[in-house]
Each structure stands twice: as C-alpha cells, then as structure tokens.
Specification:
3 helices, single chain, four-stranded antiparallel beta sheet, mainly beta
C-alpha cells in the first residue's frame, strides 16, 4: 500500500531560513511542496522518508534565495493491483460504491464489480446485495460508514496541471446566443487526479459484517 520512491527536485530556500540547518530547511520545503499531493503516475505523497544527497547550492541574480538540487526518498500511497484493502463506505450512487481510507477518498466500486445480484435502492440511496439462501432472498444493505474489504483492480491517473485558456470559435456576428451557466459549471467540475477502481465480487470481500462468524 505504501512505497518509498526515489525523487530528485530543486529546492528553493528563502533568505530568512539561512540560519537553519540545510537538511532541516530542505525537509520542511519538500513536505510543504509534496505532502498530500498526487504526483502523476507515482501516487499520493505522504511524507519525506530521508534525504540521500544534497548538491551544491546556488543564488541566482535577482533572487536572494538559495537553490539546491536534492536527491531524496518519499513515502507515497500507491497500492499494487490485486491488493486487498479495508476501508469505509463514504456514500453510494448510481455509479457505484465510493470508499474512503480516511486519508484517501477516491475509490470506486462500480456496479458490475459488486456481489451479484445487486440493486440500487433509490429511496435509501444505497446498494443492496440480494443474497440468495434456501429460505429465500435476503437484502444486505451497503450502508454509509460500514467497513468494507475490497480488491484493487485498476488505477487512473489524470493530469490536472493548469493549462492555458481554450480558444473557442467566435460566434457569428448576427448570433445573439449567450453561453449558459450549465456550460460554465461543467467546465469547472473538479476531477480527481488519482482514482482507484475496486471490486468486491468474490467470496470474503464486501462488508466485514457479512463474513463475521
């Protein structure tokens, strides 16, 4: 679930931190920059593990800060495929069951990856496993806050780096059509930079209460 990843970055130390030990100042700046951030194709950064090498520091004209190339190792959250994890149900929707680990919320179990047969209860806004027994069918609800065991089956990284404004074609001079608010809302929709796709469609997976003796 957690990995130690080797990284290289140039760290800027402002003049008011020159009185501090270089290692301490660099460690603080690295954690400010990376902690709780997603690095594309790497994972969610948690905290600095150690600094392996500090190269020479430079001060550039017009900037009183020092710039140091740093080799370091960082702890990141990046589960491997098929890893089994335990989290809590955050909420359910037509798209599936959303799970949280407390520090990471972008985990989705789509409908086809639930225990089958499953249905979505519109009134309760929860997914239900229609568990069949010799005595008939029992509805097992996937309520918010319940602990759930799942398997990681896929991951999706999305580059959310800032981009320049898009240039839309100009409307004809005689057109009086104005842009709608809905278009602006959809353009501003926030997308997760790192999403895990999960499955519970196997014996032993799903709510922990289902399998407790």
């Amino acid at each position: 679930m957690f990995l130690v990843v080797e990284m290289v970055d140039t760290v800027r130390i402002p003049p008011w931190n020159f009185h501090r030990q270089l290692n301490e100042a660099v460690a603080e700046e690295l954690n400010k920059k990376l902690a709780n951030k997603v690095v594309y194709n790497v994972g969610l950064c948690i905290c600095l593990y150690d600094i392996t090498k500090l190269e020479d520091s430079y001060i550039f004209p017009g900037d009183g800060a020092s710039h140091t190339k740093v080799h370091f190792r960082y702890v990141v959250f990046h589960p491997f495929l098929d890893e089994i994890l335990v989290g809590k149900i955050k909420y359910c929707s037509q798209e599936g069951v959303y799970v949280t680990l407390g520090f990471f919320d972008d985990i989705l179990i789509p409908p086809e990856s639930l225990q089958q047969p499953a249905k979505f209860d519109e009134a309760e806004q929860v997914w239900v496993w229609e568990y069949e027994t010799d005595e008939g069918t029992h509805d097992l609800y996937m309520d918010q806050g319940e602990e759930i065991r799942f398997r990681v089956v896929d991951e999706l990284f999305l580059d959310t780096s800032p981009t320049g404004p898009t240039t839309d074609p100009e409307p004809p001079a005689n057109s009086s059509t104005a842009p709608t608010a809905a278009t602006d809302d959809s353009a501003q929709k926030k997308e997760a930079p790192y999403t895990l796709m999960a499955s519970i469609s196997e014996p032993g997976l799903g709510l922990l209460s289902w399998w407790s003796s």
